């Protein structure tokens, strides 16, 4: 069955995570994404992160961010490589990149140049701080974005340093913003016929994610304090240790309303406290938080995190076991829903990766393995530009393509 985005065609120059996560999402949903990479080495994400001997040339990092794409190894530093790229341009709808500011212009392939060559093109870019403003040109990574976007200032406890989140909001989170912007530009072009420049800054994507966390400034002023897991205004909401008391043996309980608190008291065997005058409103629950949390902690200590989650959820209490990486890949719920994919990689064999979280009833998605470097170079250039075998052999010999 065709994907929802069948017919959308993307020349993808992104690398590492922020941009590649955007184009992988669009590829999952059916767009034809041709990943343009330097011959010989490929984009640097191919060699990023942990690697085990005998696993082939591409890291697990790359495999998880480039599923469902095709690879064209093309040297954009060479005049002929740039000319080939410009010849391909009119056959595609979108160009994506997340290079350092000025790199595409150095190649002669910035937005103005591409717009002049093909006016309907949609040019989508991620930059750490955007292309304008006092910080334009500053370099960024995920953790830098979390810092300058405000997220680190509200992550951690009152007595800890600011913490970065373990999840990469600055990278993949920015990528999801870019994917939305690309689709909006494509839909608008259906009406106007005009392309445009779509830009997302990593800093601004994090600011967007942090907006609810900053609501406390309305009452408490600046800076908003770090509260850790203890939301005292919503006591006894917190994380609680469970047996056998390992570093991830916790359950997070969110009893944020009077009704949820009543359900929690029933679950832990204290239904008589539902009418206790000390906890009839948020102020009372805050004042008596330590007393309530001690009761909940004692109950949790007699159960594993999974047992606690199941018992609480059955009573109507929002609760979640703190699943670590191994738990995630073995979780029966995620497996049944297809979130844990096994793909057949040409050099690595069966590889377990995380799947697409978007479900569409009329256009279900399927995960294909990330491409080998240059795996589709000849296919793309022959089908799109009509290049003959002798042309392709010459370009390979000159290392213009790989």
Overall spatial form: elongated
> β content, as a range?
5-15%
| Average of pLDDT | 95
Low-confidence stretches: none
Name the helix and strand elements from N-terminus to C-terminus, one letter apiece: EHEHEHEHHEHHEHHEEHHHHEHHEEHH
Cα-to-Cα separation, first versus last residue: 32 Å
The largest sheet has its strands arranged as 3-2-1-4-5-6
Rg (CA only) = 25 Å
Count of DSSP H/I helices: 17
Q: How much helix is in the residues?
A: 25-40%
Major beta-sheet overview: 6 strands, parallel
Number of strands: 11
Derived from helix and strand composition plus strand pairing, the structural class reads alpha/beta
Task: Write up what this structure looks like.
It is built from 17 helices and eleven strands. A hairpin with an 8-residue loop joins β7 (238-241) and β8 (250-253). α1 crosses α7 and α7 (169-192) packs across α8 (202-209). The chain is α/β, with parallel strands linked by helices and 402 residues long. The protein has helices at residues 18-28, 60-63, 79-88, 103-106, 111-117, 142-148, 169-192, 202-209, 217-220, 258-267, 282-287, 289-300, 305-314, 325-330, 332-336, 377-385, 389-397, and strands at 9-12, 32-37, 70-73, 94-97, 122-127, 197-201, 238-241, 250-253, 319-321, 340-345, 349-354. The mean pLDDT is 95. The strands form three sheets. A six-stranded parallel beta sheet has the order 3-2-1-4-5-6, sandwiched between helices. Strands 7-8-9 form a three-stranded antiparallel beta sheet, covered by helices on one side. The longest helix is centred in the middle third of the chain and has 24 residues, at 169-192.
């Amino acid at each position: 069955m065709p994907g929802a985005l069948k017919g959308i065609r993307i020349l993808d120059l992104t690398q590492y995570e922020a941009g590649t996560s955007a184009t992988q999402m669009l590829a999952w949903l059916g767009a034809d994404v041709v990943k343009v990479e330097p011959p010989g080495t490929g984009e640097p994400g191919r060699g990023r992160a942990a690697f085990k001997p005998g696993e082939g040339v591409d890291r697990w990092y790359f495999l998880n961010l480039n599923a469902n794409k095709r690879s064209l190894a093309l040297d954009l530093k060479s005049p002929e490589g740039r000319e080939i790229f410009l010849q391909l341009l009119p056959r595609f709808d979108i160009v994506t990149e997340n290079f350092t500011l000025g790199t595409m212009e150095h190649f002669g392939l910035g937005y103005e140049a591409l717009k002049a060559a093909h006016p309907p093109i949609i040019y989508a870019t991620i930059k750490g701080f955007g292309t304008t403003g006092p910080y334009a040109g500053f370099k960024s990574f995920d953790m830098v974005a979390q810092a300058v976007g405000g997220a680190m200032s509200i992550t951690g406890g009152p007595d800890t340093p600011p913490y970065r989140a373990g999840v990469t909001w600055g990278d993949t989170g920015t990528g999801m913003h870019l994917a939305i912007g690309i689709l909006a530009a494509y839909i608008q072009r259906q009406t106007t016929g005009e392309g445009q420049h779509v830009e997302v800054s990593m800093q601004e994507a994090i600011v967007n994610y942090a907006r609810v966390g900053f609501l406390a400034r309305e009452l408490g002023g600046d800076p908003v304090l770090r509260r850790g897991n203890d939301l005292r205004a919503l006591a006894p909401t917190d994380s609680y240790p469970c047996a056998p008391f390992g570093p991830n043996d916790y359950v997070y309980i969110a009893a944020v309303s009077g009704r949820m608190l009543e359900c929690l008291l029933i679950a832990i065997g204290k239904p008589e406290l539902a009418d206790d005058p000390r906890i009839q409103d948020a102020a009372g629950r805050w004042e008596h938080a330590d007393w309530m949390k001690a009761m909940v902690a004692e109950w949790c200590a007699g159960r594993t995190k999974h047992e606690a989650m199941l018992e609480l959820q059955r009573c109507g209490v929002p609760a979640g076991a703190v699943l670590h990486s191994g738990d995630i890949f073995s979780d029966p719920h995620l497996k049944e829903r297809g979130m844990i994919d096994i793909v057949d990689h040409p050099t690595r064999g069966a590889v377990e990766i995380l799947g697409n979280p978007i479900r569409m009833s009329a256009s279900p998605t399927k995960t294909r393995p990330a491409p080998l470097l240059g795996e589709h170079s000849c296919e793309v250039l022959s089908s799109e530009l009509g290049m003959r075998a002798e042309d392709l052999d010459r370009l390979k010999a000159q290392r213009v393509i790989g």
